Amino acid sequence: MYRKSVYILITAVAIILVLGIVMLFSTSAFAQASHGDQFYFVKRQAIWLGLGAVACVIGSILDYHFWQRYCWACFGIAAVLLALCLVPHVGKSVNGSWRWLGAGPLRFQPSDIEKLAAVTMLAWWFTKYEAQAKDVLKGFVYPAAIMGLPMLLIMRETDMGTTALLAATMLVVMFAAGTRLLYLAPLSVTGAAGMLYLAVHMRGRSERLLAFLDLEKYANGAGLQQWQALIAFGSGGVEGLGLGNGVQKFSYLPEAHTDFIFPMIGEELGLRFTLLVVFCYIIIIVCGTLISMQARDRFGMLLGFGIVTIVSIQAALNIGVTTALLPNKGIALPFISSGGSNLLFSMLCVGILINIYRQGVGEKPTDKTTTRLRARVTPRI
């Protein structure tokens, strides 16, 4: 199973990539009025997909220890870029959030860079301080404090979704690395309470929270997207209305090509394809975890597991939001939603997993065998 896991992983990623392009082709009909080209979003996604393919190949060839050697540099660059988003006339504001850098169509979210930088930093830290993983300072306080910097910057951008994503990934990776649950449990409760407090007191976020609690009441206001998403799922049923026959994309469902593309799959292609998407993400989780557990060293194991965690949690958050199981927050569906930097990040992550697999399966039974055994036994996975 392990030796086939990378091929199964690539197949699952390829399926949802193709599905994403097809759905963008279908949902971007409104682009004719807004951008003068019906295929504007499809062309842009195809360009980013090409860049992502290059990033995937580079990630699969480049020794993953490169990220170990330059983790601090990557972490610092990502933090500087996040800070630049908050600088007037430098950062770009969309829907009230300062998440973007760049100009025109060449915009990207530095938070996507920070995702990989954060996972790399955690893997490096708990590789260097493996023996102190259960220590309160080096196993909990210091890594949590380091991760707190980018999370504060992202929160300042009013990007609550990515903040929650990084926080959840940090907790999962720290737990897997050996941090005591006694330390992580209070932090989880405190962090959740803090996020809830901010959501209640931030303009716009409190309305989304109220809409989540009573969606029908706010169907024409803060709950519009989720309400229309449920209508899309209901209209599609099991069989779907047929590719291109959906109606929610005609300005009824805002952001139908980005954060809310999952309901469009349900409306046009039906329950079978939405379940296929979920199944593909489960395959990515299982195969990615198998690859990580067979890594040649602890850094590779933690890096791979962190990548799988951040991609899977992001997918779970998007699906939870679009099915109204979670409050609305702007977060893309990996490999499918329109969005350049997120697609590029996701493809690079797949390439790194492939490199971890190549080095793990290619290792000969030498003295390093003990290292591999230690990589399997130490984490709680």
Could you explain how this protein is built, in words?
This protein starts with a helix and ends with a helix. Helix 1 packs antiparallel against helix 15 (340-361), helix 3 (40-61) packs parallel to helix 15 and helix 11 (224-236) packs parallel to helix 12 (261-269). It has helices at residues 2-27, 31-35, 40-61, 65-69, 71-85, 110-128, 137-156, 160-177, 181-201, 205-213, 224-236, 261-269, 271-293, 298-322, 340-361, 369-377; strands at 92-94, 97-103, 106-108. A three-stranded antiparallel sheet has the order 1-2-3. It is mainly alpha-helical and 381 residues long. It is globular. It has 16 helices and three strands. Strand 1 (92-94) and strand 2 form a beta hairpin.
Task: Tell me the strand order in the biggest sheet.
Answer: 1-2-3
Approximate helicity band: 55-70%
Radius of gyration: 21 Å
Q: Which structural class best describes the helix and strand composition?
A: mainly alpha
> How many strands, what sense, and barrel or not for the largest sheet?
3 strands, antiparallel
Order of helices and strands: HHHHHEEEHHHHHHHHHHH
* Average pLDDT rating: 87
Please count the beta strands (DSSP E, at least 2 residues each). Answer: 3
| Low-confidence runs | 364-378
**Into which percentage range does the β-strand content fall?**
under 5%
Shape descriptor = globular
* Number of helices, where a helix is a run of at least 4 consecutive DSSP H or I residues: 16
Distance, first to last CA: 18 Å
